[in-house]
Amino acid sequence: MNLKRFNWEPYLLLLPSILYLALFFAWPMVQSFGLAFRTDDGQLTLAHMQRMFNDVGFTKALRNTVMLIIAIVPLQFILALIMALLMMERLRGSNMLVYIYSIPLAISDLAAGIIWFSIFTERGYLNSFLYSLGVIDKPFLFLNYQTKWPLVAIVLAEVWRATSIVFVVLVAGLQSIPRDYVEAAEVFGAGWFARVWRVILPLLRPSIQTALILRTILAVQVFAVVSAIAGRGMTVLANEAYLWYREYRNPHLAATYAMFILTISLITAFIYLRALRTKEEMIL
User: Fold this and answer.
1) Cβ neighbours around 86 below 10 Å, total
2) N or C: which end of the chain has fewer CB within 10 A?
3) What's the pLDDT at 281?
4) Which DSSP string corresponds to 46-64?
């Protein structure tokens, strides 16, 4: 009996991706674990973890990060879902909306933060507009760190910048749903809301999984927008990792913060994967 020739083509096609992940993700992650859980002389330790938890900025950074996740992710998902459903209705000019919605994808985090800082700053566009309308007679301090306005500005900036990421994922998922299912539901008398709730959303579950995992992980890692808008007035976990590495010259604490961010990302991904499982995944 002739043995079938082993097919190397799939593995050769995957090789560049594997090398990229190993070089730029796996190896730095191993190095970070070493910095987080080892002393300078190579001994295992939890001292860096204990110091992080006792750090004066940790509680504030964790609270701000969680607040941003709670404010940003649901709002972005709802907006992206509405935009994707509008695309599915194939309204006139809907194809142009894809390009309009996707414009923020071409803008970096830092650039988006600077744009929204120029809107909310004391002499920014919003104060100038309100002054021209006679609503205010002197600039309003939107970015006063004693108020919640910096948080609002950051949420608006992130929603404007990254909703398109969720939108693209959901549109791709909607395009994979057979049109016959929706039309059959319509024939049997299901209204628009019933079609969305009973037909579209269950079939869209894998795409919702991907979109929520991706967006939550990016929200946990938010840094540039916060730094551009709030500066030192507001801190998040990624900002604390940067400060410990760049300014305090302590790579051990920086790596510990990075591992904590990674842990939160893995936990949220696991929760989404369990909560949004399809019937096939539940059987397995």
Assistant:
1) 13
2) N
3) 54
4) SHHHHHHHH-TTHHHHHHH
Q: Which residue has the tokens 């933060």?
A: 113
Distance CA 243, CA 247 (A): 5
Question: Tokens for 181?
Answer: 């299912």
Per residue in 43-96, pLDDT (tens digit) is: 888 999 999 999 989 999 999 999 999 999 999 999 999 888 888 777 676 677
Q: Is 5 helix (H, G, I), strand (E, B) or coil?
A: coil
Handedness of CA 235, 237, 241, 244 (dihedral sign): positive
The CA distances from residue 50 to 20, 36, 54, 98, in Å, are 33, 11, 6, 48
pTM of structure: 0.84
Q: What are the boundaries of each domain within the chain?
A: 68-232
Question: What are the tens digits of pLDDT across the range 120-135?
Answer: 988 889 999 888 888 8
Q: How far is CA 191 from the centre of its chain?
A: 33
Q: Which residue has the tokens 């079609």?
A: 195
pLDDT digits (tens, 9 = 90+) for 246-255: 888 899 999 9
Helix (H, G, I), strand (E, B) or coil at 165: helix
- Rounded Cα distance between 225 and 234, Å, is 11
46, 37 Cβ separation under 8 angstroms: yes
Within 13 A of 195's CA, how many CA atoms are on the CB side? 19
Topology adopted by domain 68-232: MetI-like fold (1.10.3720)
174-192 pLDDT, tens digit each: 888 888 888 788 787 888 7
**Cross-strand partners of 44:** 38
